[in-house]
Amino acid sequence: MRNKPLSRVYRTLNHEIHYMMSFIGGCLEIVSFMYLYKALIGYMTSNMIFGIAALANGGMDFESVYHISIILIWMVLAALHQLIVNRYHSRLHSPWHGYAIAMSINCLLLLVFMLLGAAMSRYGLLGDKPTPMVMPLVTIGLIFMYIQNFVIKHGGTRQPTATSVVTTVYVLMMSRLFSVFDRHRNRRERVCLYHEGLHYLMVIAHFFVGALVTALLSRHIGFYSLGLALLVLVLFTLRIWGVHGRHRTALVQSVSRNGS
């Protein structure tokens, strides 16, 4: 599953996947937070807290169930994903095939999310409070983030965390980085843990840069600030398709040699 990385910073293609998905996730999360009523569409715990707070206020309007509905949609996506995996998993031609397909779908989803969000903003459909009108846009974003988390979990570095940036990442980063001072471990163990800590730092840094750059761009171009994330995703998806093609060619040649 390892492949030649672009540089020493991205030690393997799996690291590239994890970091690029974290960058893109930061881009989409900041836009959803700013324009979709603080809906962090990749973090269900935050939506649970917002939903509980709204319900505790006693309101029965759409705003009070908005964040809860996001969680329900996420759960439905998880169920549908499992059904799709059970049905089509055997049709993949290489380990990279599934990632290439998933990222291609996300290219289309991100384009639709950006254009639809920009249109809704331009025509005043994104008001001060959430309405059922925004749910198609939110659902597209949720599907995108679900696929993104899938790609990180299965195509990334397979470290203890699956999503891009969660609380655990910060704890793991600090504990691993400061393991260099643990005299009870040998040098090799300390170096391995230190590199794992650097990996978590890279995850956080890519997420931070993606969110910051997109937030700055959004001041001037709104939803079109996601154009940078879309460009990165398209270019990286083409790279993954190329890797899949080489793996498939090598597999076909291997089968041909064995058959002859």
From TrEMBL:
Taxonomic lineage of the native organism: Bacteria, Pseudomonadati, Pseudomonadota, Gammaproteobacteria, Enterobacterales
Keywords of the record: Membrane, Transmembrane, Transmembrane helix
Domain of life of the organism encoding this protein: Bacteria
Spans through the membrane: 20-44, 65-84, 96-119, 131-148, 198-217, 223-241
Keyword Transmembrane helix: yes
Taxonomic source organism: Edwardsiella ictaluri (strain 93-146)
Keyword Magnesium tagged: no
One Pfam family of this chain: DUF1275
Designated name of the protein: DUF1275 domain-containing protein
InterPro entries tied to this protein: DUF1275
